[in-house]
């Protein structure tokens, strides 16, 4: 039987102008998605796990110095370089525009991470460990990954599923965007919920009434590494700042 | 020409061992194929665990006819069905001590748990691997329609599609494979989603 048609295209808009680099999204993501704790040692080995990271760039010399921040997570590319290289179809594009990683299907070849231009895929080189005090805070809605498995941002698909269920239970439609509505509860990824400045906006790009759909037409829009033609579902809005240069930070 | 006796003697063990190996391999293949087609057979061998209290669904869900959702409270709205707290048993068992000896001794155990404010360590029967995200709520909501149960159905008719006739079981055991093929077969047949991120995330 044919796959039921899904008419959504989950998408995120990141407004660089509003990002203060506070790292709330990083913490929210870490605790929502059971991401193991990255120690200094892991950073030194470049084996840290951060599904979302805030990159910081310094501009100018002291005292005329400015910090610029850019949050980077999986871009959920429509023509994703990671997908065709997977020998076992553990990563694929689903009909909601999500770039999916099926952990139990993954055999750990790491081709996908090596082919990702955004460096947003992370490999479990070791069995992840948590301090005893944190074991009970693991999210039961998210699989705890084991050694030898690739992982990455999922747009918090567990939260999408939960709110779709909540909506269906109330006889509502699937929520269009992250505008808070008690009946849709947890809708929107953890990073979006945590962002204090509303720099991250999430929703269905196919729904003309959603905030992402209108922001996506902004003249400030750009994609990361646009020339690669990966067609990401994460859209960035450049800074409104006369001193910010021409915005071609590629 | 007469066959060489020496050669004949030599070939005997080869034929015997070869036959034995062929039987073992053939038997194994037939067993696997059979197990594949009739996999619930594997489950018949799966014994029900011995629970800390000999609580039976026969008495409660069967004879008393208590609604499944009275005890498994979150089954209609959450992912997990939930196992009742000891306090919930005490609604009745504060007064019902049991008449027959074997029942009374089990109920006494329950009352001891309640007196000590201790939870009961039930042994889990159904458990999917951690990488599978099963949801009761959707199934309870959608299955009555899918199964054609009509307007006024009893909730246990829904549960029994996956759990069997629990109300006739002295000890709860798993009766359906609940492997991926089992889930996906029903999903395909009913136009339910089969995308991997429905069940794995």
Write up this protein:
The complex is a heterodimer of chains A (250) and B (201). The mean pLDDT of chain A is 87. In chain A, the strands form four sheets. Chain A has a four-stranded mixed β-sheet. Chain A has a single domain (10-244), classed as Alpha-Beta Plaits (2-Layer Sandwich), CATH 3.30.70. In chain A, strand 2 (53-59) and strand 3 form a beta hairpin. By secondary structure, chain A is α+β, with helices and mostly antiparallel strands. Chain A is built from six helices and ten strands; from the N terminus they run βααββββαββααβαββ. Helices cover 17% and strands 16% of the residues of chain A. With 201 residues, chain B is an all-alpha fold. Among the domains of chain B are: 3-45, no CATH class; 70-81 and 126-201, no CATH class. In chain B, 53% of the residues lie in helices and 0% in strands. Chain B is extended. The mean pLDDT of chain B is 86. Classes of the chains: A alpha+beta (250), B mainly alpha (201). Chain A binds chain B through residues 1, 3-4, 92, 94-95, 98, 100, 102-105, 141-144, 154, 157-158, 161, 165, 168-169, and chain B through 77, 79, 129-131, 133, 135, 137-138, 141, 188-189, 191-198, 200-201.
**What is the first-to-last residue Cα distance of chain B?**
73 Å
Helix share, percent of chain B: 40-55%
Computed Rg of chain B: 25 Å
Radius of gyration of chain A: 18 Å
Describe how the helices and strands are arranged:
The complex is a heterodimer of chains A (250) and B (201).
Chain A: E1 10-15, H1 24-32, H2 40-44, E2 53-59, E3 66-72, E4 91-93, E5 99-101, H3 111-115, E6 122-123, E7 150-151, H4 157-169, H5 190-194, E8 200-204, H6 211-215, E9 221-222, E10 234-237
Parallel strand pairs in A: 1-10
Antiparallel strand pairs in A: 1-8, 2-3, 4-5, 6-7, 9-10
Chain B: H1 5-37, H2 40-44, H3 57-63, H4 68-71, H5 86-93, H6 101-115, H7 136-147, H8 155-163, H9 180-189, H10 196-199
């Amino acid at each position: 039987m044919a796959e039921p048609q899904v008419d959504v295209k989950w998408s995120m808009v990141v407004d660089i102008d509003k990002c203060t680099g506070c790292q709330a999204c990083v913490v929210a993501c870490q605790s929502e998605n059971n991401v193991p704790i990255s120690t200094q040692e892991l950073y030194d080995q470049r084996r840290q796990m951060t599904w979302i990271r805030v990159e910081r760039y310094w501009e100018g010399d002291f005292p005329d110095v400015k910090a610029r921040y850019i949050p980077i997570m999986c871009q959920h590319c429509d023509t994703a370089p990671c997908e065709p290289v997977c020998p076992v179809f553990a990563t694929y594009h689903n009909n909601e525009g999500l770039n999916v990683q099926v952990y139990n299907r993954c055999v750990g070849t790491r081709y996908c991470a090596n082919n990702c231009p955004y460096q947003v895929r992370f490999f479990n080189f070791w069995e992840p460990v948590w301090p005893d005090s944190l074991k009970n805070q693991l999210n039961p809605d998210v699989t705890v990954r084991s050694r030898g498995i690739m992982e990455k941002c999922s747009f918090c698909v567990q939260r999408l599923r939960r709110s779709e269920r909540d909506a269906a239970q109330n006889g509502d439609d699937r929520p269009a965007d992250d505008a808070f509505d008690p009946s849709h509860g947890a809708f929107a990824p953890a990073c979006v919920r945590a962002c204090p400045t509303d720099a991250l906006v999430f929703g269905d790009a196919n729904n003309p009434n959603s905030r992402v759909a209108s922001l996506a037409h902004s003249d400030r829009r750009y994609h990361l590494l646009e020339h690669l033609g990966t067609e990401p579902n994460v859209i960035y809005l450049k800074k409104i700042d006369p001193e910010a240069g021409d915005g071609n930070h590629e | 020409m007469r066959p060489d006796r020496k050669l004949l003697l030599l070939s005997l063990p080869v034929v015997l061992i070869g036959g034995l190996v062929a039987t073992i391999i053939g038997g194994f293949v037939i067993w696997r194929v059979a197990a594949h087609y009739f996999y619930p057979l594997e489950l018949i061998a799966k014994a029900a665990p011995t629970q800390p209290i000999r609580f039976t669904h026969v008495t409660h869900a069967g004879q008393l006819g208590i609604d499944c959702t009275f005890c498994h409270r979150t089954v209609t709205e959450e992912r997990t069905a939930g196992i009742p707290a000891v306090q919930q048993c005490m609604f009745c068992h504060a007064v019902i001590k049991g008449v027959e000896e074997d029942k009374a001794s089990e109920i006494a155990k329950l009352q001891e748990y309640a007196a000590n404010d201790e939870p009961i360590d039930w042994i889990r029967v159904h458990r999917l691997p951690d990488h599978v995200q099963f949801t009761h709520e959707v199934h309870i909501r959608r299955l009555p329609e899918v199964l054609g149960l009509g307007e006024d159905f009893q909730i246990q008719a829904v549960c029994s599609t996956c759990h069997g006739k629990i109300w006739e079981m002295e000890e709860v055991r798993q009766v359906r494979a609940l492997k991926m093929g089992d889930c996906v077969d029903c999903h395909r047949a009913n136009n339910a989603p089969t995308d991997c991120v429905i069940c794995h995330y």
